[in-house]
Design goal:
The chain is of the alpha+beta class. It has helices at residues 47-57, 86-106, 144-155; strands at residues 2-4, 11-13, 19-20, 23-27, 34-38, 63-70, 74-78, 112-117, 120-126, 131-137.
Length: 165
């Protein structure tokens, strides 16, 4: 995205890593002035119901964190621990989504996948064709109440469709 310096008006091209949660903080490349902008992010319409779910999921003790990942836009919402940066989540989301797409091509009735690494469980649940909810959990399988929340999300009209290739 392009942002103009508040001091000198110079055009500054920012990378996605510099845009975090609707905020852009950067030093002007021309004059060195420190700029800070808040901006509206373009969010898919399917993100709002998922945000409600994510906020509720944080209350379950087995949930470490979660984020919504769009296969083209990247991370949409982030409720993961702060030690994971946006670029880490982008990599994790892309890798999980690609693996799910391969699995989906063989088993098209599948809408979720789990990956267990060092006692931590990563669960990918497809929300729409291009958007996945990725949950980091202490246990697998997820408890009944968490599964009920995921089922409610899908039943709200966000049925799974074939992922993009």
């Amino acid at each position: 995205m392009i942002f103009f310096c508040e001091d000198c008006g110079e055009k500054n091209l920012l990378t996605p890593d510099q845009l975090i949660s609707g905020k852009a903080v950067f030093r002007c490349s021309a004059c060195g002035y420190m700029n800070a902008y808040a901006f509206e992010t373009d969010r898919a319409p399917d993100v709002e119901p998922a945000d409600v779910l994510i906020n509720h999921l944080k209350s379950f003790p087995e949930i470490i964190g979660s984020f919504l990942f769009d296969c083209t836009a990247g991370v949409l919402t982030n409720y993961m621990p702060a030690l994971l940066k946006t670029r880490d989540l982008e990599f994790l989301g892309k890798t999980l989504f690609q693996n799910f797409s391969i699995f989906y091509s063989l088993y098209p009735d599948t809408d979720e996948m789990a990956l267990i690494i060092s006692g931590k469980n990563m669960i990918l649940k497809m929300i729409t064709r291009d958007i996945a909810l990725i949950i980091a959990a202490k246990t697998f399988p997820l408890s009944g109440p968490v599964q009920d929340q995921l089922t409610a999300l899908v039943s709200m009209g966000m049925s799974h469709k074939e992922p993009s290739k």
